[in-house]
Amino acid sequence: MMLKEKIHATQNSTNVCAEVEGFDFQNYDDRDIAELRRLWLEYGVLRFKRTHISDADQVRFSRHFGDFVIHPKQLQEGGHPTHPEILVISNQMKDGKPSGALGNSEATWHTDTWFYERPPAGAILRAIQVPPSGGDTYFLSTYLAYESLPEALKMAITGRQIFFQNVYDKTGKLRLNKQEPTSKDFREWDGVVHPLVRTHGETGRKALYLGGTIEGAWIVGMPQDESFSLLEELWAHTTGQGDIFVQTWEEGDIMMWDNRCTMHRRDGFDPNTIRIMHRTTTSGERPV
Q1: What is the pTM of this model?
Q2: CA 273, CA 30: separation in Å to the nearest integer?
Q3: Can you tell me whether residue 255 is helix, strand or coil?
Q4: Where are the transmembrane segments (predicted)?
Q5: Interior CA angle at 153 toward 114 and 245, to 5°?
Q6: Per-residue model confidence as pLDDT tens digits over 8-22
Q7: Measured over all CA atoms, what is the biggest interatomic distance in the chain, rounded to whole angstroms?
Q8: Domain 8-288 belongs in CATH node 3.30.420.40
Q9: Cα angle 43-49-50, degrees, rounded to a multiple of 5
């Protein structure tokens, strides 16, 4: 009987991502999943190189990390034809229509669906087809962003809450099932309130929670101009840190991240090339 290779992870020098080796997506047990979960919680971002698994394999694997969350784009152009759990991210056109979500433009720093009452805990993204260049994905740790804050900034945000409007997306497009607001003050629109510093439900560590944009965000109770200035400072600190991991994709690569303590972004790429990714998303708790 052939013994399975032991699962181990090597942390990248950026302190954000660890590369996992020794995990067999076709042959694993509960102990293997428990070890992956431990690594996921420890590092925040895990990379699996050139896995070449099927959509069914991805769904089966993802199920071990929580119930599935349907991303808003899955109800529009990003739905999968046979696996409703999968969000298709693609710039490929079929019959004159997008065959997936997000196109080829740059995606700026964000935490996934920050405008939900219960944002997802994690995401698993698999490369199906990648362009010769571009479309790289960047990751940072919001643990590190919080822990490296100057003490004065930490004091300024202690106990603070942040409001995110959820009527318009980052491109200014009306979100699904939302109506045009009657007020010009976004603070009066539909939205959610989350702690500006959240405590991870499993690790107990504190992380900054900035969502996905300064526009439409407000530190509750602050004058709007002061809130905007403080958020600008927090965003500059978070995205300006040196510990950023860059994933240059190869077909079959999988990135798995903890949405509660990381942010990510994507480079744009040549629209004449094709990039197809399949993503599964798992449920999380309400930020506290």
Answers
A1: 0.93
A2: 40
A3: strand
A4: none
A5: 55
A6: 999 988 889 999 999
A7: 69
A8: no
A9: 155
10: left (phi over 0), alpha (psi -120 to 50) or beta: beta
| Mean pLDDT of the residues in the chain | 93
Cα(98)–Cα(171) distance, rounded to whole angstroms?
Answer: 17
Name the pLDDT band for 1 (thresholds 50, 70, 90): very low
The residue-averaged pLDDT of 221-235 equals: 97
| Alpha carbons within 13 A on the beta-carbon side of 271 | 7
Q: 3-state secondary structure string, 19-36?
A: EEECCCCCCCCHHHHHHH
For the chain, the structural domain boundaries read 8-288
Report the pLDDT value the prediction gives residue 75, as an integer from 0 to 100.
Answer: 60
Q: Are strands 45-48 and 17-21 parallel, antiparallel or unpaired?
A: parallel
DSSP 4: P
Q: Which of 123, 144, 139, 108 is nearest to 257 (CA)?
A: 123
In whole angstroms, give the CA distance from residue 189 to residue 168. Answer: 10
pLDDT digits (tens, 9 = 90+) for 58-100: 999 999 999 998 877 766 666 787 788 999 999 988 777 777 7
**Spatial separation of the C-alpha atoms in residues 150 and 146, rounded to whole Å:** 9
Closest of 175, 213, 181 to residue 72, by C-alpha = 175
Q: Tokens representing 258?
A: 């903890």
Q: Using an 8 Å Cβ cutoff, are 137 and 255 in contact?
A: yes
CA-nearest of 9, 4, 49, 44 to 27 is: 4
Structure tokens at 8: 């181990």
- For residue 217, the surrounding DSSP H or E stretch is strand 217-219
What's the confidence (pLDDT) of residue 102?
80
- Residue 155 CB partners (closer than 8 Å, separation 6+): none
Confidence (pLDDT) at 205: 98
Q: CA–CA separation, 220 vs 217, rounded Å?
A: 9
One-letter amino acid of 260: R
